Amino acid sequence: MIRAAQVGATCTLTLDRTDKANALDSTMLQALIDGVDAASDAGARVLVLTGHGKVFSAGADLDAARQGLASSPLWEELSARIASFAGLSIAALNGTVAGGACGMVLACDLRIAPRRAKLFYPVMKLGFLPQPSDPARLVALVGPARAKLILMAGLKVSAEEAQGWGLIDRICDDNGLDAMVQALSADVLSAPDGHVSAIKRLIPSYSAVSKGAV
């Protein structure tokens, strides 16, 4: 249900459970963690997270969430692995992203999406708590009030509104994700060894930014 492919120095992890809107279970979360680790071990400079079908991910599989997946440490482990990836990480959202799947998206360096995509995180409605690092990453991108609109008021944010907030970095046509990924990663792929990670270390993390934001 997670497909991994590496071409040159670019590793792409694809969520492929279209019969369940790419909803995540523990097996998929572990496969994503393993995929990020494998990309790092292989020296990948670009990590791309995307989905198959019209939806990036509906979030946690609800049956599994009610049985304990909602509080699983796998969510935080995945976000931490993505955030610590030494190269450029890109969430190439092929469609809407919801719930716990937002965590891996927020942990990426860049987020791109087609115009039809939406983002929402219905933890208030479902009675779950967001994963611990997600609110701080969200605040670092959009600010406290907008984070509350998403997490507390249940707002579904369109791609265009998300771009205006800084939550989505680029919007493309429905068939334009691959071309945009290539354009955004071109300089990284042609950089000297060590240059990408050196620049990334100079950019403050979400935790440093969020201290002055909340």
User: What is the general shape?
Assistant: globular
Written as H for each helix and E for each strand, in order along the chain, the element string is EEHEEHHEEHEEHHHEHEHHH
Rounded to the nearest angstrom, the radius of gyration is 16 Å
Largest sheet: 6 strands, mixed
Question: pLDDT below 50 for ≥5 consecutive residues: which ranges?
Answer: 209-214
**CATH fold topology:** 2-enoyl-CoA Hydratase, Chain A, domain 1
Helix content: 40-55%
Category by helix and strand content: alpha/beta
CATH architecture identity: Alpha-Beta Complex
How much strand? 15-25%
| Terminal-residue CA separation | 37 Å
The tally of helices reads 11
Secondary structure elements and their pairing?
Blueprint: E1 2-7, E2 10-15, H1 26-41, E3 46-51, E4 55-57, H2 62-66, H3 74-83, E5 88-92, E6 96-98, H4 102-107, E7 110-114, E8 118-120, H5 123-126, H6 134-142, H7 144-151, E9 157-158, H8 159-165, E10 170-172, H9 177-190, H10 195-202, H11 206-210
Parallel strand pairs: 2-3, 3-5, 4-6, 5-7, 6-8, 7-10
Antiparallel strand pairs: 1-2, 8-9
Helix pairs in contact: 1-3, 6-7
Overview of the structural elements:
The structure is a single chain. The chain has eleven helices and ten strands. It has 214 residues and is of the alpha/beta class. It has a six-stranded mixed beta sheet with strand order 1-2-3-5-7-10, sandwiched between helices. Helix 1 runs parallel beside helix 3 (74-83) and helix 6 crosses helix 7 (144-151). Residues 209-214 have low confidence and may be disordered.
